[in-house]
Amino acid sequence: MKHPRTYRNEHVVILGLARSGVAVAKLFHEYGAKVTVNDKKELDQCPEAEPLTALGISVICGGHPPGIIHEDVKLVVKNPGIPYTVEPVERARQLNIEVVTEVEVAYHVCRAPMICVTGSNGKTTTTTWIGLMLDAANKQPIVAGNIGRALTEAALEAGPENTMVVELSSFQLKGTRDFRPKVACLLNVYETHLDYHGTMDDYIDSKAKLFASQTAEDTAVLNWDAPVCRRLAGEVKASVLPFSIKEELAYGMFVQPSMNAPGVSAADRRIVYRDKQGVLHPVLTVAELGIPGSFNIENALAAVCAAFTAGVSLDVIAGVLREFRGVEHRLEYVATKDSVQFYNNSKATNATATIKTIESFERQGIILIAGGLDRGSDYMELLPVFQDRVKGLVAIGETKQKITHVAALAGMSLVKSVDTANNVQDTVDTAVREAMAMAEAGDIVLLSPACASWDMFPSYEERGRMFRQSVHNL
């Protein structure tokens, strides 16, 4: 697409009235475009519509009417979550009308350099860490994207003195063309969102769009332990800065001794940077990290790479790593009740995230609350941790039968399936009580669903909030 100012007096259609849609609609309206916003929800479910119509923007709710995409439309900006199979998008393609997401629009209006983070897991923690590191170095970061604020809204406020720190999903990246971050981080790639992408190839290609427009003047931060990331390293045009917890690298950020080295304590492992001259620069020991888990060591390495590339000193970076205590709904400590600890990991919306969370704990007895939206997985990848690390299971949501089946195969005797037909808060209350009944002193009750939340909850955040409330009400 071109800069939004070039669409003056041209027809632009915005599909979806979420935060990003509202921000984009206002932007194009201010530039003089003829904006139409369309949402399939009914008007009474779209409170965002009223302020837009007050500006004179056309808002059509209640479905996608025939003819909303026509030959005079010059651009369609699609909410990232809307499938490419919906009729308006298909019609745009038939008419060779460009379809983008808000991320592409934001790039064209942003005057600040961007540090962008994507991956199947760990995006929010890593993005938050980078923002804190830049803030500690007085580099005036603005954190936005999938993490909270609409990127377009934030980008309009950013000046050359700022740095945009952006969390991005594959849904957002799929709709980009010219988007070019100064620093692009790919944390990992696991099988997820196939109900949207259809194939792993499409999912990977969408993630790889993060690097598509970068040049040798930019930096690609890649997880050297992830096969997809290592493969992409040979394809990107940017300067590659690798990180690894499993391998001591000739250049890059890594753990020394590596996490594969047996019999080494966290206090004796340190995060180090080896520069291109081979000189080692220590950052801090693994034991000093403020949050637990091997996956958070990976996140920390990625954040160090990004912040260091942006000019933050390793001393400042180390201080932030020590002080940070985690992000809400990501392995968040909730409370201790009768010597049983409760953790909220509602953000674990796929099995890999749940496995990594379980493995981050020592060998305490773990009572797992899991289940949610059924996207077609059989959850058999959970079998090894169910056999080795999970003491009991409370299953909820559409996938409860699939997950209890895996528990049965693992020989787990403490298994409960909670009826989810009643009030959602009652369901969560019941699940927490059942988990507490299974637990003994010293055990951990962990909400880590391995599934998206949308079968029962409007968001993973609401799922986590209800869990916290249930725990505090015990």
TrEMBL record:
GO cellular component: cytoplasm
Catalysed reaction, written as an equation: UDP-N-acetyl-alpha-D-muramoyl-L-alanine + D-glutamate + ATP = UDP-N-acetyl-alpha-D-muramoyl-L-alanyl-D-glutamate + ADP + phosphate + H(+)
Main location: cytoplasm
GO molecular function: ATP binding; UDP-N-acetylmuramoylalanine-D-glutamate ligase activity
Broad EC category: ligase
Top-level taxon in the UniProt lineage: Bacteria
Binding site for ATP: 119-125
Keyword line: ATP-binding, Cell cycle, Cell division, Cell shape, Cell wall biogenesis/degradation, Cytoplasm, Ligase, Nucleotide-binding, Peptidoglycan synthesis
Compartments it resides in: Cytoplasm
EC number: 6.3.2.9
Annotated ranges, domain Mur ligase C-terminal: 329-451
Keyword Disulfide bond assigned: no
SUPFAM superfamilies xref list: MurCD N-terminal domain (SSF51984), MurD-like peptide ligases, catalytic domain (SSF53623), MurD-like peptide ligases, peptide-binding domain (SSF53244)
PANTHER family referenced in this protein's UniProt entry, alphabetically: UDP-N-ACETYLMURAMOYLALANINE--D-GLUTAMATE LIGASE (PTHR43692)
Known function: Cell wall formation. Catalyzes the addition of glutamate to the nucleotide precursor UDP-N-acetylmuramoyl-L-alanine (UMA).
Protein name: UDP-N-acetylmuramoylalanine--D-glutamate ligase
Species of provenance: Paenibacillus piri
